[in-house]
Specification:
Chain B: This is 4Fe-4S dicluster domain-containing protein. The structure holds 2 protein chains of 2 kinds. Chain A is mainly alpha-helical. Helix content of chain A is about 65%, strand content about 5%. By secondary structure, chain B is an alpha+beta fold. In chain B, a hairpin with a 7-residue loop joins strand 2 and strand 3. The chains are: A mainly alpha, B alpha+beta.
């Protein structure tokens, strides 16, 4: 009641305003609703609440006005029924609340890729999402897309390697072993490589286990043993993420200067890298195939690591959509990297005689090095001639 | 057998959170775990509704479909349960669940998740019914005692209904016909691929 006096005074003032002269051309039209707005607040008459609010609120609730429910039909008729009477009518209970349709909201959320959410009183942001139909998309990815892409990539690569092995056998050095060796990778390079490689093998196997283990391993070893295995796999996966990331960083820093693509790589690729034809194309320290492995490792490994850290600290940097995306990226890139690394492991071990020594002892046979990395050998020999002091080291190499 | 479902009548829910409290108390749920919660949509705006949400015990449950260790199983009453002795806490069920039902205690390093916990429909777990082992792992087993979930049983406005899907749908349908409006069954389209038509 105390508020009604100023309100009435304001009303009188505003109503009188046009009589004194129009200060603004649009004032009367725009002013009318402004005056009336406070009136319902002090309880002058609820019936005068604009009927236009009904469709407005319905739109906010994302429900279409044409919902087939009988409630929707009532929403249309209710405001009309109110108009004639001055008595505040008993409102149709829903029209003032805005009509929602759970089914319609779920359908719209699913179609638009949105989530139905609201406010929650517990301190867990994720709990504020009421329904996320996108969970089904992620399920589809995990159960179908990832399983198929992973299965085809890994098994396909194994099949290709097997066929290659059956066709070409173990590749040998044409000139035969020289009996003398040259340092290819120093201890630091080998340690960095094997730190990355060993963690990648455990990461890859424990990761593949999460997608394929329940089909391949679970029926064989039983649920209890499989859970124990998977639990250790999960712990190993979480911890080995860190040496793997460090390894990726180290490999990038020590080898990036030798892995910049150049014109020679095109020639190498055109001649099939010596795998298909007989001739061995020229190459520097790394040939085009090795450069591909390098960049797959560095770029793929970085993306897998980033998405992995998003997953390892769930919901710290992103929301549900981000977590699902992180898993999608992590899963797909990982299976592709596993496939690529299978080829890398093959050619570095049983696929080519003399190749393993590079990462084993670090000393490769000179003829092997000349065949595959002729330009690198030339560089090393030139370097040896100019930099190595003392005839003992320089002469045997210089003699070639 | 019955096909157990939840139905929250959002036109009746007053967001008192008694269902949440009842659940926590009945099952001695650890701090930070919320098997049931009340979400208010359009808060403070026309069309505001509060919906009590927990595991909906879906038909063809996404959690069970994505579980890497296949620890989920469905009871004869179509209640979706899981074996905590097999769960590895990978978090996949939370990404797949449309209703945010799976909860994880925070254990160990990083964002390490413990074994998943979710609404059991007051039906315990794979352990022997109503044993201390079952209670510690999964909470009370009211279904084995012939009772319905406590959240729905003690809902003051009877907004939250639990029971056989057909029966609670009939109750809701009669309500909607009597009062002339109703938002429908929240989550039913997503969980069961069907809705309550009035």
């Amino acid at each position: 009641m105390t508020r009604s006096t100023p309100t009435l005074a304001l009303m009188a003032l505003l109503l009188a305003a046009p009589a004194f002269g129009q200060s603004q051309p649009g004032a009367p039209a725009a002013g009318a609703p402004e005056i009336q707005a406070p009136v319902p607040e002090v309880g002058a008459g609820r019936g005068s609440q604009p009927a236009g609010q009904v469709p407005e609120s319905t739109a906010q609730g994302d429900a279409p006005t044409g919902t087939p429910a009988p409630a929707a039909a009532g929403a249309v008729t209710a405001p009309q029924a109110r108009q004639p009477s001055n008595v505040p009518p008993t409102p149709a209970p829903f029209s003032d609340r805005g009509q929602l349709s759970a089914e319609e909201m779920e359908l719209q959320a699913a179609l638009r890729g949105e989530r139905i959410g609201g406010r929650i009183t517990i301190p867990d942001r994720q709990a504020a999402t009421l329904i996320q139909p996108e969970g089904r998309d992620w399920r589809e990815f995990h159960n179908r897309t990832l399983t198929w892409v992973g299965g085809v990539a890994v098994l396909g690569m194994l099949a290709i390697l097997l066929l290659f092995f059956l066709a070409k056998g173990r590749l040998t050095t044409e000139a035969g072993p020289a009996g003398r060796t040259i340092q290819r990778f120093n201890l630091f390079e080998r340690v960095a490589h094997w730190m990355t490689a060993s963690s990648f093998i455990v990461l890859g196997l424990s990761g593949l286990n999460l997608t394929f283990g329940r089909f391949l391993l679970l029926p064989i070893i039983g649920p209890e043993a499989f859970t124990a295995f998977s639990l250790w796999g999960k712990i190993a996966h979480n911890y080995l993420a860190f040496p793997f990331t460090l390894g990726i960083l180290l490999l990038f820093l020590i080898w990036v200067k030798d892995n910049i693509p150049n014109r020679l790589d095109l020639v190498w690729l055109k001649t099939g890298g010596g795998f298909i034809g007989r001739e061995h194309p020229q190459a520097g320290r790394f040939n085009a195939g090795q450069k591909m492995v390098f960049w797959i490792t560095v770029i793929g490994g970085t993306l897998v690591a980033i998405s992995g850290y998003v997953l390892i600290f769930p919901f710290t940097v992103t929301d549900m959509a981000g977590q699902q995306l992180a898993h999608t990226v992590h899963g797909i890139l990982s299976v592709l990297m596993v496939a690529a690394m299978l080829a890398h492991i093959y050619i570095g071990s049983i696929g080519m005689k003399g190749a393993f020594d590079a990462m084993g002892s670090g000393q490769v046979d000179l003829n092997w090095a000349k065949e595959h990395h002729s330009m690198w050998v030339d560089d090393e020999l030139a370097k040896a001639r100019t930099t190595v002091v003392g005839p003992a080291a320089a002469r045997p190499l210089g003699a070639d | 057998m019955a096909r157990m479902k939840f139905l929250c009548d959002s036109d009746r829910c007053i967001e008192c959170n008694a269902c949440v409290t009842a659940c926590k108390n009945e099952h001695e749920v650890p701090w930070g775990i919320n098997r049931r919660r009340v979400v208010t949509i359009n808060d403070g705006r026309p069309g505001e509704r509060s919906i009590s949400m927990a595991c909906m015990h879906c038909t063809d449950a996404p959690c069970a479909a994505v579980c890497p260790v296949s620890c989920f199983y469905t009871t004869a009453d179509a209640i979706v349960l899981h074996d905590k002795d097999l769960c590895i806490g990978c978090g996949y069920c939370f990404y797949a669940c449309p209703f945010g039902a799976p909860q994880y205690p925070r254990v160990g390093n990083f964002g390490g998740r413990g074994k998943m916990d979710k609404c059991t429909y007051c039906a315990g777990g794979p352990q022997q019914d109503n044993t201390i082992v079952e209670y510690t792992q999964y909470g009370a087993n009211r279904i084995a005692e012939g009772k319905l979930p406590l959240c729905a049983e003690m809902c003051s406005t009877k907004a939250l209904l639990a029971g056989d899907g057909e029966m609670i749908a009939t109750i809701y349908r009669e309500r909607v016909q009597a009062r002339g409006y109703g938002a429908g069954a929240w989550g039913w389209r997503t969980a069961y691929r069907e809705t309550v038509t009035v």
